[in-house]
Design goal:
Layout (H helix, E strand, L loop, with lengths): L2 E4 L20 E3 L15 E4 L7 E6 L5 E6 L4 E6 L5 E6 L6 E7 L2 E6 L4 E7 L2 E8 L9 E7 L4 E6 L13 E7 L4 E2 L5 E4 L3 H6 L8 H6 L11 E6 L6 E5 L4 E5 L5 E6 L8 E6 L5 E5 L7 E5 L5
Parallel strand pairs: 1-16
Antiparallel strand pairs: 2-20, 3-23, 4-5, 5-6, 6-7, 8-9, 9-10, 10-11, 12-13, 13-14, 14-15, 14-16, 17-18, 18-19, 19-20, 21-22, 22-23
């Protein structure tokens, strides 16, 4: 059954802030009792990526501890990188050049999604070219698929559309997330989540104390002609199962539960996250956010999981 998500929905230098007390509020928690377990104003660590990954567009934990997988939006290559230094450990060429936006490791396979919605299932073969299976669906360039996440509980991948939510006019001013069943290798006919701004105004009207976050509240103003929230990455938290959706536009990180209830909205620092395009978690809950270089070095920031 279609779940409808009603969206109400820094310091880059050689050092870090001396105290988190100096960090202004970064987000809005919508659900009473929810604890956002990251201090996005105080990165635990960051590192630059090699020039070949200046346009990094997707990020995933590898099936090996201490490694990440990355793609960039020009070459059909999966890069295995060191999760602490960004050093490229291996390159897996799987297809010709194209606009590749998301990557996910699932067991011994790797999945990559193209902005057109084409999904590539890659089976690496040691010392040989990888075996590749390609899946095409009804999604296309107008949907602009940029987010890809592995949902182990439901044995599926989630594909997040940055632009149009689907093919129907009923999805106007909404963003859609579809599910690819890993058993049947089929894509859901309708979004399993829809993101809209329908309830934003109602929430903000009751929260006059949010003036310090006016940029965040303006971004989600339901009276705006255009819906600015545009998913560029999606990931599922390995401990809580909550779904994190990143929008490069607006520099916003959205957290929702499996029922599609928005739990938290986090405004990322523009100084650090000039163009956040990749998002993933390590098994211990460490959050990684990758940023395109925009003419400089691409960077990955990591944030430690801080449970209550």
């Amino acid at each position: 059954m279609l779940e409808t998500l009603l969206l109400l929905c820094a310091l880059l230098s050689c050092g870090q802030p001396e105290s988190s007390q100096d960090i202004p509020p970064q987000g809005i928690t919508l659900e009473p009792g929810f604890h956002f377990p990251y201090n996005t104003g105080l990165p635990e660590h960051y590192f630059a990526l090699p020039g070949k990954l200046e346009e990094v567009s997707g990020l995933s934990p590898s099936n090996k501890n201490g490694e990440l997988l990355a793609v960039q939006d020009e070459n059909g290559i999966v890069y295995k990188i060191n999760a602490s230094t960004g050093e490229v450990l291996e390159e897996i060429t799987f297809w010709k050049d194209g606009d590749y936006e998301g990557v996910e490791a699932v067991g011994d396979k790797i999945y990559v999604v193209k902005s057109s919605g084409t999904l590539y299932e890659i089976s690496p073969e040691k010392g040989q070219e990888p075996l590749v299976e390609k899946y095409n669906f009804f999604l296309n360039e107008e949907n602009d698929v940029e987010g890809l996440a592995y949902d182990p509980k439901n044995n599926r991948l989630l594909l997040a559309c940055k632009a149009k939510a689907g093919q129907e006019a009923t999805y106007k001013k909404q963003k859609g997330i579809y599910a690819f069943d890993l058993s049947t290798k089929t894509l859901s006919e309708s979004p399993v989540f829809l993101i809209s701004t329908e309830m934003v105004g109602q929430y903000l009207d009751t929260q006059p104390a949010l003036e310090k976050l006016e940029k965040l509240t303006e971004f989600f103003d339901p009276t705006n002609a255009d819906f600015g929230f545009s998913p560029s990455a999606i990931a599922i938290h390995p401990m809580t199962g909550e779904i994190y959706v990143l929008s490069s536009s607006g520099k916003v990180l959205l957290v929702m539960n499996v029922q599609g209830t928005v739990l938290h909205l986090e405004k990322l620092s523009k100084k650090e996250h000039a163009q956040p395009e990749g998002l993933c978690f390590s098994p211990d809950g460490t959050l990684y956010i990758a940023n395109e270089g925009k003419g400089a070095d691409a960077k990955i920031y990591s944030y430690s999981y801080k449970n209550k």
